[in-house]
Amino acid sequence: METGAPTTAKPSSLRWKILRQALLRKPTADEQSAIGVKRITRKTTQGFNLIPSNLVEDHPTNLTDATACYTIPIDSAPKLYLTQRVVDRAELSDFEICNQYNIDNTGLVCQWPSEEALAYFCLRNADMFRSKSVIELGAGYGLAGLVIAAVTEASEVVISDGNPQVVDYIQRNIDANSKAFGGTRVKSMMLHWNQNEKSNISSTFDLIVASDCTFFKEFHNGLAQIVKFLLEKVRPAEAIFFSPKRGDSLDKFLEKIKESNLCFSITENYDTEIWKRHNQLMNGDGSWPSYEKDHCYPLLVRIAL
Questions:
Q1: Residue of 106, 110, 144, 104 lying closest to 126 (CA atoms)
Q2: Partners of 158 in the beta sheet?
Q3: Which DSSP letter does residue 138 get?
Q4: What is the pLDDT of residue 231?
Q5: Among 39, 74, 145, 187, which residue has the fewest nearby CB atoms (within 10 Å)?
Q6: How far is it, in rounded angstroms, from Cα 174 to Cα 218?
Q7: From start to end of 132-216, where are the E strands?
Q8: Residues of the chain with pLDDT > 90: what percent?
């Protein structure tokens, strides 16, 4: 999720600001400039361009969706087709679901750059996943999980999110790419990090992956606890997070990780190609005018017991 300047407003209050704008249709100048609202709704059109994609299909009967083709940049890799939302506005039902489930709607907004960086890292490190059971947390449209399933020979990939609307998209994308997975079992899962009942997590996972899931501080405790729960089920196991610093949000999350008696390491330069593109953007190559290291460049965080 690409963000602007920090704000202390809770996601629920920001959602209601956006809802008020949608109902009024003509927002006031003050509302238009509200940084918090922009942080939730701003849809990035830039990225690291690590996995080329192009729009291949419109849905004339469903004007909110389109399908993008992602070309995995390795020989003989299958192409992946992901149906995504393409509208810039949120619907009333989005806010109803967000408030019902105590979640945010960022997974519906777009394919976020950190997810692409995670997906690229996974395909460049495919041996890490071979014959392993993997779960992606807060997956959005599920690009990283689908890449793992398509190119790494993982035994199982579970692609999860806490938003039921997002999980519907994930399942559609799994179904659309089922022939790309070979012998890898792939499924979607509705998984809210704050849920007390974890009986639906019957599988055990060798690896946990996630991207840009640490921004909202109110979800830090639940996220840390679900990571600990999953790591305790299989030893050794590891969680791989791709997260920009975003002010102090990543630091605050890692405080929760420490409080949960988990260990972590942070790596800034973890892939030569991603690092090269980051430096090009920092030097102002013009392809991503709003690029800021703190808000846009994902650090690699590895978490273990």
A1: 144
A2: 135, 187
A3: S
A4: 95
A5: 74
A6: 30
A7: 133-137, 156-161, 185-190, 207-211
A8: 66
